[in-house]
């Protein structure tokens, strides 16, 4: 495939892949977490801490089963486009691939001048496309994505450093890498070094608003739970209309 690029020669990618790199898993049902979050004892409004981080739907937690890691299969000598998406609601991830550099070509749907990095931090809702060359000896390599989340120590199930997948070359054994898991080294992404190739402008244009609405945001206690209001109306009631 060809990645659209109006100012530079197109980037030819022989085998596109999509990688959802980041998600979070909670063992406690959402209604229970919501009740805990809005309880008046949660004075700091600390968000629930996940039990594990996931890559493509798989992850491990402290004391849990050693479930198989997610695997991305590649063939030596080819180039791949990986689309990394942080689908979690909270927390960021530091993404890297052992012994492989990455060329960022897109951020949040906007094509960018190619930028080579060894790792990058990706926040909730962010998306990056990178080109990875499978130019290393045939083997298994760690895909690393340790998580940064507030109050991580509050959940004993969470090991925020244990978020891994496997980049597996064709012909490599069906096994985890034998190298140390470790953390990313080399050149991290500095976001100010990203330069977009197009400027799509603001959605809907940049003209003045047709209607202006003033909203007063408030916080109160209703029926023993913390409640947020817009102009005196509880947000939950607004959403249920």
TrEMBL record:
Sections of the chain in a coiled coil: none
Keywords associated with the record: Oxidoreductase, Signal
UniProt superkingdom: Eukaryota
Class of the enzyme per the UniProt entry, highest EC level: oxidoreductase
UniProt xrefs under InterPro entries: Cu-oxidase_2nd, Cu-oxidase_fam, Cupredoxin
GO molecular function: hydroquinone:oxygen oxidoreductase activity
Entry keyword annotation includes Transmembrane helix: no
All residue ranges annotated as the Plastocyanin-like domain in the record: 25-172
Entry's EC annotation: 1.10.3.2
SUPFAM superfamilies per the UniProt record, alphabetical: Cupredoxins
Keyword Kinase attached: no
Quaternary structure note: Homodimer.
Function: Lignin degradation and detoxification of lignin-derived products.
Family, as annotated: Belongs to the multicopper oxidase family.
Protein name, as recorded: Laccase, multicopper oxidase, benzenediol:oxygen oxidorectuctase
Gene it is expressed from: lcc8
């Amino acid at each position: 495939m060809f990645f659209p690029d109006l100012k530079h020669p197109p980037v030819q990618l022989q085998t596109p892949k999509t990688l959802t790199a980041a998600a979070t898993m909670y063992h406690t049902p959402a209604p229970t977490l919501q009740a805990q979050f809005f309880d008046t004892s949660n004075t700091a409004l600390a968000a629930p801490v996940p039990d594990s981080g996931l890559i493509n739907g798989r992850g491990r937690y402290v004391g849990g089963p050693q479930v198989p890691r997610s695997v991305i299969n590649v063939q030596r000598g080819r180039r791949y486009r990986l689309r990394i998406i942080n689908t979690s609601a909270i927390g960021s991830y530091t993404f890297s691939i052992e012994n492989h550099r990455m060329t960022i070509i897109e951020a949040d749907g906007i094509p960018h001048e190619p930028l080579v990095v060894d790792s990058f931090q990706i926040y909730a809702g962010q998306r990056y496309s990178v080109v990875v060359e499978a130019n290393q000896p045939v083997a298994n390599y760690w895909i690393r994505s340790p998580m940064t989340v507030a109050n991580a120590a509050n959940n004993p199930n969470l090991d925020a450093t244990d978020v891994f997948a496997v980049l597996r070359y064709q012909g490599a054994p069906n096994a985890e890498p034998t190298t140390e898991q470790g953390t990313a080294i080399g050149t991290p992404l500095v976001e100010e070094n990203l330069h977009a190739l197009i400027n799509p402008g603001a959605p809907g244009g940049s003209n003045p608003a047709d209607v202006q609405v003033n909203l007063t945001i408030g916080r109160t206690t209703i029926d023993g739970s913390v409640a947020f209001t817009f102009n005196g109306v509880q947000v939950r009631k607004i959403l249920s209309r």
